[in-house]
Predict the structure.
Amino acid sequence: MAVPQSYRNASEPWTDQEIAELGELAADNIPPSVIGLRLGRPEQAVELKAAQVGVRLLPAERPPYGG
C-alpha cells in the first residue's frame, strides 16, 4: 500500500528542520491538520511530536491563522 503524498514523511524520523518548522507554524496559530499537510505527516503524528518537544498547538476554541 502506497503512502499518500500528503504523508510522504510518515515513516521517517523527524529532522531538526521539521521540528523547527513545527514550532514556527504552531506559533503562527496554524492548525495541526494543516501543519501535517505541510510537513507530509499525519495530524496525530504532529500532535504527538508537538507534545514531545513542548510545542503548544492551536487551542480548539481559537480561530486559526492568527485570528
About this structure: DSSP finds three helices and no strands in the chain. The two ends are 39 Å apart (CA to CA).
